[in-house]
Specification:
The structure holds 2 protein chains of 2 kinds. Chain A is mainly beta. Chain A is built from 10 helices and 58 strands. In chain A, the strands form 14 sheets. Chain A has a 22-stranded antiparallel β-barrel. A 5-stranded mixed sheet of chain A has the order 10-15-16-13-14. In chain A, strands 3-2-5-6 form a 4-stranded antiparallel sheet, with no helix packed on it. In chain A, strand 48 and strand 49 form a beta hairpin. The N terminus of chain A is likely disordered. Chain B is mainly alpha-helical. In chain B, strands 1-5 form a two-stranded antiparallel sheet. In chain B, strands 2-3 form a two-stranded antiparallel sheet. A two-stranded antiparallel ribbon of chain B has the order 4-8. The model of chain B has no long low-confidence stretch (mean pLDDT 94). Chain B is globular, with a radius of gyration of 25 Å. The chains are: A mainly beta, B mainly alpha. At the A-B interface, strand 18, strand 29, strand 30, strand 31 and strand 34 of A face helix 1, helix 2, helix 3, helix 5 and strand 2 of B.
Chain lengths: 1085, 493
């Protein structure tokens, strides 16, 4: 972009060349960087009011002839333009500083239209490519977190997991709420292929979101269009906001330029986000087993004819006997013939190595090389990047390779051809299992664990013979796993692998019809094929299985655009676009799996099925949208801009009668500072206001009814009516958006702010609404419901200190979104967005924010105190425990944060730079199944501490044990009932069984030190002597280093189930936060 | 140059000329399905839910106190809300059984007369009718008043998506309509023409079997209504009795396959899952052990009690119903029960003979005496489970089994033996226990409620069908939607 601009500027200089006066004098000088004093080559030096200009050489030197008394203009993209009167001088050295806020900065807006900041009548925010490439996050989207107002980015902690990107709140009840990604004008699919089971926390893998296929090293800049007015030109999908990515276009180097980048990054588990175990009691659910104490099985293990104490190996909880080193107990390894402890006992103590010892350091390496060059005819670039990551779990790797090629060539003066091809190859192996599932060891470790199990012993047991030697035998006499496999067996045998090969790119031709009209034709394609295979080895706790999933995605876009840009007269300018877009999306997939188990061990193919296979699931779906659109922006004296847009779409997924819809947008920008040119304190001031509507179509294939096909019963074919009723009368849904904003900058751009208020209502939503099952269906597609999002976005920047070469810059952004479900279908006041385990739902409920957690609550008295059940002491199993609300759909949490924000501080001294980013989410709730089950099972220290009387709470009542719950009795007095929580009754006492849903809803706020970057660019003066290098940058990078504050115990409140609606707000088997530290070196030559 | 532009333009619009509508078709799903396939699917789904031992839906064996749970005893203490059991069962019955039967009917009626014999069409409708009658009685017997619809019932709103919030009907009215439908269907069924043939998983379309099944169902409905004065139970039963099942060969059952997903659901939950969630309950084990019931070794495994007794000794020992139980300590469901091919039973000869014994006791003229029917019932059950005739004779001769000498009134005698015989038919065992009140079952100490006499309505009905749900409450005795609310035929004696 800079390069193009430079070319344009130079062109302007050339075209408007005038002859100069005779009394010219020659001025020479040297331009240096104000930061580090290094020489600046390529700076434009122009005599004001003329086109007489030159550029500085490699040493930053220039020579120019200019009339006496004239003024020189020094300009360079990214630096502050300076105008200096030459007076009588013949030498003029100028240090040039960075431009804090470039008002002349050009932003790429919808359909590639470039606009200056002043022209923008809506909110847009730009992030430099280096902000994502420098931090080396495996998914560049994560690196945007905390840097943009109005954009909520939620990243799961699983390796390569999908990141949720929601701009200005969730608008669609059940449809897609993810931002649209557009790379150089090509819309990029950002769906994930995660199953509904995965999204509802019931297991499966998070295969990541497809926008992670974009090479961070190829990103020049990222522009985010937040509101519908900004994005309406993109059509139906734009109402969720658009992330526009502009890739590198070559640095403008003549000949061959080479950039090499290399980085290594090491991650460590943040202990504050993993479970701590109680170390006082052993394996078991209570004391109802075989030996007289009830805590142990009673078997003669060593064959001496005397019964021995055996831990109840089938039990995945820790409400067992108190540890006692004088007691000899046989553990799981006594029944592993390969173990040194075969038929041998251990002293009965807590395991020396708890599961946290299983985590390893993650290591990520990335290397890239980019070749580029340009001439007056065009540019080219060719980049290759590779990324290798091993995760914190054993046997996990993620490899990414990217090749990017782009080139533009002027065929004639008027005709330019441009093409771009991007290739990515993503290979995952051993992604972490997610949710409540035996492939997710976090479920095992956080919810269902025996404190007697030494993880290192499990490791040794697995590696001795690669068999499933689990701590969780069904019985000492039946040595097969009952609920959990050996954790190392899980990682090394029950692993997935996957591959996504993707191509996206475009070819386009641009023809300059006249000086102010050009025509562009473009064909772009985004296509990928995906392959996922999952395994359950023979001997696993679940039926052995191999399954494979193949999916192909294709999207073509055909665009024809006529751009115009004309100065009508000295006051009025008009620019705009008229265009047509044809979009065709095709998805097909097939999912096949073995049936009833595998036959040959470790042989993973469908043909290794024990029983005849069940017919694979095939999906084939197309979507077509034809759109025509027009946009005009009329400018008056660089002060007033009026922007008008209209678009008409015709979509294949709506019934013929309703499939065409129109929507408009209008925006006004008023640069009031133009009227206040005398106010030197004010650099810029702008007021903007806009209104837009965007129509949206239905999901494909939701009009006509079809049949489900269960597996034939023997030779009898079966069909079944579908559980969702389609609707042939759907009409388009619509988002109505209003936005107004105010921005100012002062004191030579040292301070500035931008405040935006927005309100968006999405109406006539197309939803599969739940209906009474007595209608024969679960759901029916209808048009109903309205969701409103409104909020404020604030960005602030300041340069509090700028002394010589030292500067301190602060960027703040803050977002507050308020979200409300205004209506649903007639007679329906709640829609289940996601149904989780343990009676927890995340709903859209009328009158509540989108995404409320519902379940049971405490019962409160008039004073709002939690009430204890004190009825019927003799016959009431709940006596002394909390009363639970009768209703199981009480709103007990809201997943939406009150506000999110980020503060970035950057300190610079010459070419040294240190920046750190603090990323904050305030409010929002999360339900933790990890706590609900783990507390039930007696894993956490809270279940094994002292009680209110100062005695071990697990003692019997006679021994002073028991627990008094914090609450009041029916007469309003403080609860004084001591409940027996000894082994006999302890299971569930602190967990889900005796406590309402509310008890496990936590505040998900966090303050994180998200990013620390220390970078150093070798001064040009040094680099210049180091041929062939033209630049060397070194940086040290830290990501997710420190959770400064959180309220969720033992876990990272940000971790969720990946991208999608209502996938955050519920944790089951949460992965710990990983602190990343690394370094990065960049060589340019 | 213009050539290039024109060709680009032409290319672009070439692609846009396709018909948008066609893009929306679903090439990988059938838009039409033969009626028989839906009929068969409904039969299978109904058999599955009645046979299931899944803790999320098929908790029948726990309600009948025939099994106990091991570590997670929630359902044994009647926590049926956490796993949303009333919702799951309701959904399966309406969506997976009744809706498929209804769709099957629609598709039968839609077949072009050119391609179907009208009598065959009518025969298919009659089979759907009989299956529907059976399915509706299950829904009523679990919930009471429910949304209902039928070709002969005016105002019923169920199974009509145009009316997604259907109103509830009185259970008595539904039973009345079902009896009418059942009679009509049996009358209209034509012996000389085909019906669904192999699509019928019960009888492969055999006319005589369907007439026997229809009459056995009618007998059952008549007996269920025995204590409801508004119905002439005697007449219903007497009309049906001459035409009911006469041997185990007549049983209405689905023979499951040995490969997933068409195995017996018990195999899925107990064996395929690899879990150890259930043991036999002391409630039934104590009874069959005391009676030296020869079915015991078929139904239960023996367990080594040496850890308790000190010497190796194998016995049948049930876990304490309602408690947490150690899996290794107690008897488990036996090999026959966990056999993947074990049949799923809708109605059997045993059940029919027990009804006839009871009918005699109630003074209905159904032929034979109570003792003979009682003995036939026990004998057929033992035959079904492969017990030797000699053992059967010994059992029937026991004074605590023999009809003349066994304890209690006819309800207790029949109730106890029927509850034993319905060991692998938990839904039936629970329903007959509710009706006969024998054997005496007591709620366990840790129980949250009394033993459920019905399921409360699903939570979804409260939120999605609120107005009708509230009206439905007035149809329930006492106006409360609880597990202790009785179904209309469950008249306190």
């Amino acid at each position: 972009m800079r390069r193009i601009l430079q070319l344009c500027l130079t062109a302007v200089c050339v075209v408007a060349f005038y002859a100069s006066y005779a009394q010219d004098r020659t001025i020479t000088g040297r331009i240096t960087s104000a930061d580090d004093g290094s020489p600046l080559p390529g700076v434009n030096v122009v005599v004001k009011g003329t086109t007489n200009g030159t550029v500085t050489d490699v040493n930053g030197k220039y020579t120019i002839t200019a009339p006496a008394g004239s003024t020189l203009i020094f300009s360079f993209i990214g630096l502050k333009t300076q105008e200096i009167a030459i007076g009588e001088r013949s030498a003029l050295d100028v240090p040039m500083g960075q431009d804090a806020q470039q008002l002349s900065e050009v932003l790429v807006t919808a359909q590639g239209i470039e606009k200056t900041k002043n022209e923008l009548a809506y909110s847009a925010q730009k992030v430099d490519g280096s902000a994502v490439s420098q931090t080396r996050d495996n998914n560049f989207v994560n690196a945007l977190s905390g840097k943009l107002a109005g954009v909520q980015i939620t990243r799961p902690n699983s390796m390569g997991g999908s990141t949720n990107v929601v701009i200005r709140g969730n608008k669609s009840l059940t449809g897609n709420n993810q931002a649209l990604f557009v790379v150089d004008g090509v819309p990029i699919d950002n769906s994930n292929t995660n199953t509904t089971d995965q999204a509802s926390g019931r297991g499966g893998y998070d295969y990541g979101n497809a926008a992670a296929d974009i090479n961070p090293d190829d990103i020049e800049s990222i522009n985010v269009l937040k509101g519908a007015a900004a994005s309406a030109l993109y059509g139906s999908r734009a109402s969720n906001g658009v992330v526009i990515i502009t890739t590198k276009k070559g640095r403008g180097t003549k000949g061959l330029g080479v950039t090499f980048n290399g980085g290594v990054n090491v991650g460590t588990v943040d202990k504050s986000t993993f479970i701590k175990y109680q170390n006082k009691y052993g394996q078991g659910y209570g004391n109802y087993y075989e030996d007289p104490s009830g805590f142990f099985l009673s078997r003669d293990v060593d064959g001496d004819g005397v019964r021995d104490l055996v831990t109840p190996t089938s039990e995945d909880a820790s409400w067992g006997a108190p540890f006692d080193p004088t007691k000899q107990v046989y553990l799981w390894d006594a029944f592993d013939p390969a173990s040194p402890y075969y038929k041998k006992s251990h002293p009965f103590v807590a395991a020396k190595n708890d599961p946290s010892k299983m985590f390893q350091h993650s290591v990520q390496q990335s290397y890239s090389v980019m070749l580029d060059g340009s001439s007056e005819k065009g540019y080219y670039k060719l980049g290759y990047s590779t990324n290798r990551e091993t995760g914190i779990m054993p046997n996990s790797t993620l490899k990414k390779d990217f090749v990017n090629f782009g080139s533009s060539y002027k065929l004639t003066d008027k005709l330019t051809a441009t093409a771009s091809v991007n290739f990515s190859n993503i290979r995952g192996n051993g992604r972490y299992g997610t949710g409540y599932n035996d492939t997710n060891l976090m479920t095992n470790f956080r919810q269902w664990w025996a404190t007697t199990t030494d993880i290192k012993d499990q490791e040794a047991a697995y590696f001795r013979n690669h068999k499933n030697i689990t701590w969780n035998w069904a019985d000492p006499d039946e040595t097969k796993p009952i609920y959990w496999d050996n954790p190392y067996f899980t990682r090394w045998e029950n692993y997935e692998d996957d591959n996504r090969l993707r191509y996206f790119g475009y070819t386009s031709l641009n023809y300059k019809l006249t000086s102010w009209i050009d025509v562009t034709g473009r064909i772009s394609l985004d296509t990928y094929s995906e392959f996922q295979e999952e395994r359950q080895a023979l001997g696993s706790v679940t039926t052995s299985q191999y399954s494979r999933f193949n999916r192909r995605f294709k999207e073509y876009n055909y665009d024809l655009m006529v751009n115009f840009n004309k100065e009508l007269n000295e006051n009025f300018t008009i620019k705009g676009i008229v265009g047509a877009n044809v979009r065709r999306t095709h998805i097909e997939s097939i999912n096949a799996s073995t049936n009833g188990g595998l036959v040959v061990d470790r042989y993973y193919a469908i043909e290794n099925t024990k029983n005849p296979i069940i017919a694979p699931t095939e999906i084939e779906s197309d979507l077509g949208v034809d759109g025509i659109y027009a946009n005009a922006s009329i400018g008056y004296k660089n002060m007033l801009y009026l922007d008008l847009t209209g678009r008409r779409d015709q979509a294949s997924s709506l019934p013929k009668a309703n499939n065409t819809y129109y929507y408009p947008s209008t925006s006004l920008s008023f640069v009031f500072s133009e009227l206040m040119k005398d106010a030197t304190w004010l650099n810029n001031g702008k007021f903007r206001i806009n209104y837009a509507e965007v129509g949206n179509t239905a999901p494909a294939q939701s009009l006509k009814d079809v049949y489900d096909k269960p597996t034939a019963f023997g030779t009898v074919t079966l069909f079944s009516a579908q559980s969702t009723k389609n609707n042939p009368n759907l009409k388009p849904e619509r988002t109505k958006s209003f936005e107004t904003g105010f921005e100012m900058s002062f004191i030579e751009d040292r301070v500035g702010f931008d405040v935006t208020y927005y309100k968006q209502n999405t109406v006539d939503q197309i939803v599969p609404a739940a209906v009474s099952n007595a209608s024969g269906y679960d759901k029916k597609f209808i048009n109903a419901g309205e969701v409103r999002n409104q909020g404020f976005e604030v960005t602030l920047y300041a340069v509090p200190v700028q002394i010589g070469a030292f500067s301190w810059k602060v960027n703040v952004n803050w977002t507050r979104n308020r979200n409300m479900v205004l209506s649903l279908a007639p007679g329906i006041n709640a829609l289940q967005l996601n149904t989780f385990q343990n009676g927890v739902n995340i709903d859209a409920a009328v009158g509540s924010p989108y995404g409320v957690i519902r379940g049971t609550d405490y019962v409160y008295n008039d004073k709002g105190q939690r009430m204890i059940d004190d009825s019927d002491p003799e016959n009431n199993a709940n006596y002394g425990h909390y009363l639970k609300s009768a209703a199981s759909n009480v709103i007990v949490g809201n997943v939406n944060p009150d506000w999110i924000g980020g503060v970035q501080n950057t300190f610079k001294y010459k070419s040294l730079s240190l920046s750190f980013l603090i990323d904050t989410k305030h409010g929002g709730s999360v339900y933790s199944l990890d706590m609900a089950y783990g507390l039930s099972g007696g894993l956490y220290p809270e279940t094994a501490g002292l009680n209110q009387m100062g005695n071990p709470l697990r003692n019997s009542l006679a021994q002073g044990g028991g627990w008094i719950y914090d609450g009041v009795l029916s007469d309003g007095t403080k609860n004084n009932i001591v409940v027996d929580v000894s082994a006999q009754n302890g299971y569930g006492a602190f967990g889900t069984d005796y406590n309402p849903t509310r008890a496990f809803v936590y505040d998900a706020s966090f303050v994180k030190l998200r990013e620390v970057v220390f970078s150093y660019s070798l001064p040009q003066s040094i680099v210049a002597r180091m041929a062939p290098f033209k630049g060397i940058d070194v940086s040290l990078v830290g990501r997710n280093l420190w959770i400064i504050h959180k309220n969720l115990p033992y876990a990272d409140p940000e971790d969720g189930l990946g991208s999608g609606n209502a996938t955050n707000g519920f944790q089951s088997g949460a992965y710990p936060n990983v602190r990343n530290m690394g370094f990065n070196v960049r060589f340019k030559f | 140059m213009k050539k290039i532009i024109i060709s680009v333009l032409a290319l672009g619009f070439l692609f846009s000329c396709g018909d948008l509508d066609e893009l929306n078709d679903n090439p990988k799903k059938a838009a039409d399905a033969p009626a028989g396939t839906l009929f068969a699917n409904a039969q299978k789904n109904l058999a599955d839910i009645l046979t299931s031992a899944n803790v999320n839906r098929g908790i029948w064996r726990l309600l009948a106190q025939q099994w106990a749970e091991t570590t997670y005893n929630d359902e044994s203490v009647y926590d049926i809300a956490t796993r949303n059991i009333p919702q799951n069962v309701w959904g399966i019955l309406y969506r997976d059984v009744l809706k498929d039967l209804e769709t099957s009917r629609t598709n039968v009626l839609a077949v072009d007369p050119l391609f179907i014999d009208e009598t065959v069409r009518q025969n298919q409708i009659q089979l759907i009718e009989i299956m529907e009658v059976y399915a509706w009685t299950v829904v009523v017997n679990i919930y009471g008043p429910i949304p209902y619809s039928s070709p002969t019932y005016s105002g019923g709103q169920a199974l009509d998506i145009e009316n997604p919030s259907p109103k509830y009907e009185k259970a008595e009215d539904i039973y009345k309509d079902l009896l009418t439908r059942l009679d009509a269907a049996m009358t209209k069924l034509d012996a000389d023409k085909d019906n669904f043939g192999d699509y019928d998983l019960l009888y492969k379309g055999d006319y005589d079997s369907w007439i026997k099944f229809g009459n056995s169902l009618k007998l059952k409905m008549g007996m269920i209504l025995a204590d409801v004065p508004a119905f002439n139970s005697k007449a219903i039963v007497e009309a049906a009795a001459p035409h009911v099942f006469t041997s185990n060969d007549d049983n209405a059952l689905i023979r499951y396959k040995d490969t997933p997903p068409n195995t017996n659901p018990v195999w899925v939950d107990l064996i395929q899952s690899g879990r150890h969630d259930f043991v036999a309950a002391n409630t039934i084990v104590d009874v069959v052990v005391a009676l030296e019931d020869p079915r015991t070794p078929v139904w239960f495994t023996e367990v080594d009690t040496s850890s308790e007794e000190g010497v190796e000794k194998f016995v049948y020992w049930g876990g304490i119903y309602g408690n947490k139980n150690s899996y290794s300590k107690f008897s488990h469901p036996g090999d026959a029960i966990i056999d993947p091919t074990q049949a799923g039973v809708f109605m059997d000869y045993t059940e029919v003979e027990f009804y006839l014994a009871e009918a005699v006791e109630r003074g209905y003229n159904v032929g034979g005496d109570a003792e003979t029917h009682y003995n036939n019932a026990i004998t057929s059950s033992m035959n079904y489970w492969g017990v030797d005739q000699a053992d059967i004779d010994t059992y029937l001769d026991r004074p605590d089994v023999a009809y003349a000498t066994a304890d209690g009134n006819y309800k207790e005698k029949i109730g106890t033996q029927k509850w034993i015989a319905m060991y692998n038919r938990g839904y039936e065992a629970w329903t007959e226990w509710r009706r006969l009140d024998y054997p005496v079952l007591v709620a366990p100490d840790l129980a949250l409620t009394d033993i459920p006499l019905r399921f409360p309505y699903p939570v979804n009905e409260q939120t999605l069908n609120t107005a009708n749900y509230n009206t439905a409450l007035s149809l329930l005795p006492g106006g409360v939607d609880k597990v202790s609310t009785r179904i209309f035929w469950d008249v306190p004696q």
